[in-house]
Every structure is written in structure tokens, then in C-alpha cells.
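Recall that a protein's primary structure is simply its ordered list of amino acids. Everything else, from secondary elements to tertiary packing, is in principle encoded there. The following example makes that idea concrete.
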Amino acid sequence: MTLRFTLTILIACIFTVNQTSAQDSSFQLKDYKFRTPGVRGLELDINLSGGVLDSKVVNSNDIHYRSFNSNPSLDYFKIISTDKRQHTSNFSLSPSYSSKFNSTDLTGTKTRAANLFGSWRRMDHFFFKKNTFFEIGNEFNTYGNSNRQFGGSIFSNSGRINFQDQLSAGVGKGRLENVQDAQMAMFIVNDLKKMNLLDQDISPEKMNELAMLITGINNRRVFDSRRRRIYELTKVDSFFQANNFVKHSSIAYFTAVNDNWAFAFNPGRQAGTIYYFRVRPSVRWEHSKIEQNNPSSTYKGSDRSFTYGYEPVIGIEKQKPVNLFWQKSMGASLVFVQEWRRFKSEVQNGNNPPQQPFLNDTTRSELFVNAFYAVGYYPSNRTMINVEFNIQTEYMFSNFFDQSQGFAIRPGIIVSASYFVSFRTRLSLYAGASWRYYDPGKVSPTPYVYYSRSALNANINIGFSHILF
């Protein structure tokens, strides 16, 4: 099953062209060119969760459990799109805190954990003739964790911090265009048609002009939401009045435009195809420590590692807006990973003298084949549903732990949805499931090597986000 099956999926995702229905009108989302000297946004996400368990157990101790989790995040993004350059950048900061208490009639354990995740990503495409491009980018991530656990006379304190930076440089052909502003223009016009508020049909040229106007309006950043809304609706109304598309303003006309302006900006919709080759060199530093105390002994441990490597990548991505309501996406990539790692571990037990540090230099060489196919559905101006099928195959020449060869395959499915409950305030749902099969191949003959032959992983998340400006 394995490599032949995976290559079949890869080839299908790259070369299969499915027959699809035409656009809703002569105006094509895929033909819109999103051009902006710079649009910025700031988004706040808040996730809170908790749980309580009180279980009466027959012939054993009763079980008590309670938990609280908080996970806010702040995201800043910037987009620039001109004929010669595409730029995207994103800064994200996400602290989190969790508190748990587990107990029976005899014992109780409290756990407190705090985490901080930060990332900065940017990518620039510089275009030449026939949509060939040179790209350069960077992705920096940092993570910190502090965990305390105590119960009775036992205390444990652990922490971890790491930094990782990955550069990217490559070449390619093609271009992915953002089309969400053209989508908004079509939603506005469609609603006005349904309500018989348009005095004449709007030509594809005028639809494109309306989409460009929306892009220009979104480039203007105003913190006062009241003044911003007045400016935005006035500009859109001026377009319809100046072109004699509506002769008389009415409350129905106003509410149709206002409703779409408030909700019809589902993010991330694109059109186009790109082929690319890139190389991603990276470095990573990690430090973790743990301290445990109980009446009979103490334990202290510290691990440090430094890793550097590179990843050549070749791939394709295709984004196709079938019509206003449907989106199809597909892509595949071939990735080779080569890394070198230096690991150092120090341990001290009780009053014994510290042990000699353990040093280990290892390498990691792996080959990945990835492919995905996704369908997006936009039933209304405030709702987005996306279903993605993906598969990843992995061949390990060596890894950091057992220097083994092996093969793994992981098919999966992801379902995501979002719904605007009010202006710039969105509820989101994410659910995913994947199954991983692993054949270890040649495993070093040691009792300290553990692996899972197969594993099913599933998760679900419900979130809330509000775009500040």
C-alpha cells in the first residue's frame, strides 16, 4: 500500500482537472487582481474552558476533578499586493494558563501551568515576466512553559524554552490572488438583485470596479468604528448612485449593503496556481529542566539541544473559485529534511555527586510526500465551511532517537467553519482526525526503543475572535 498508493494520490492532486460548473455571472472571481499598497489588521481571540468531575466509585476511593483553561491570542497581519510584489507578514502572541486539581479520598494533586507562544512570519514574492518569481521569507517561533505540581509532601517544578528560526528562499511560476473583496462585491449585487433594487444589470467591468473600490476602502484604517462605517457605506453608495444602478435610496437598499459590508469578508479565499522550489535552512535551540522533591529524595535534571539543518521543497498549489459559493483547492509537495543535533543532559540525584554530563550527536534524514484536496462552501455572506482531505507519507533514513529506518503514512480529514455573530466578531469551529501507521524497519536492538505501530488522533476546538481594526 504504501509508496505506490501515495504516489498515485500525489499525481492525482497535481494533474487531475475536474469539470466544474460555471460562475454565477460573467464576472469571474478568478480574474480579479487584488492590488493594495498595504492593508493591516489586528485580531483578538479568546478561548476559555473548564470542567468538573465528581465520581462515586464502588469498592474504591471516590474521584474528584476540576480544571480551568484560558488561551487568548493577539494577531497582527499585513498584506501588500502589487504587480511586482506580494508580501504577507504575521505576528502572533498567545499566552495560556491552566489549573487542575485531581483527588481521591486519600490524596490530591494540584497542577498549575503557564505557556507563552510567539511567532513572526513573513514572505515576499518578487515577480518578473510571465509570472515567474523569486521568493524570500522567514519564520521565527519561540515557546516557554512553566509547570508546577504539588500534592501532600511531593513537589515538582519543570520548565522549558525554545527558539527556532527558519529562512526560505526559492523560485517559482504562477500567482495566488486574494479574491475576498470580489466575493463581497458579488454578495452585495446578488442581494440587491434578489430584492429587485437594481435598475439595470451590472457589467463585468463595473463589478471589477466595485471590487477595486472595496479593496481601496479596506486599505484605509480608522480606529473610530462609527466614523469608519459612515465613510465605507458612503463610498459604496456613491458608486451605485454615480452609475445609476439604483434610482432611489431606501431602507431595504441600505440594509442590504450594510449587512454585506459587515459580514461578507470571509478571509483567505484565493485564486490561481503556483509551482515552486524552495530551500529552508533552520536553527533551533531548546532548554528544559525539572526539579522534584519528596521526603526521601530529590532529583534535578537539565537538557539542552542545538539543531541545525535544511529542507529542499518542490511543490504545486492550485486554488479555484468555482463560483461565488464553492471553492476547490489542491496541492502536493515533496520535502527532504536533513538535520544535525547536539544534545547534552545533566542529572543530580539526592545528595549524590552530580553525574557526568551525557553528550550525544545525532542526525535526522527524512523524506516526506504531502498532498491535499479541499472543498470550501460559502452558503451566505456570514458563513464559511471547509473540508480538507490530506495524506502524508514519510520515509525515515535516520532519526534522533534510534537511528532506524522506517516508513509512516498518515491520512486525515479537517473540517473548519466560521460564523459571524456580529460585525467583525466570529465564532469558529475546528475538528480534525488522522490515523498514522508506522513500520519501523530496522530498529536498533535495545530495550529502550519504543514506538507505536498505529495511532488514531482526533480533536475539536471552538473559538471566538474579534477583529479590533
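The mean pLDDT is 83. The chain has two domains: 2-176+270-467, 184-263.
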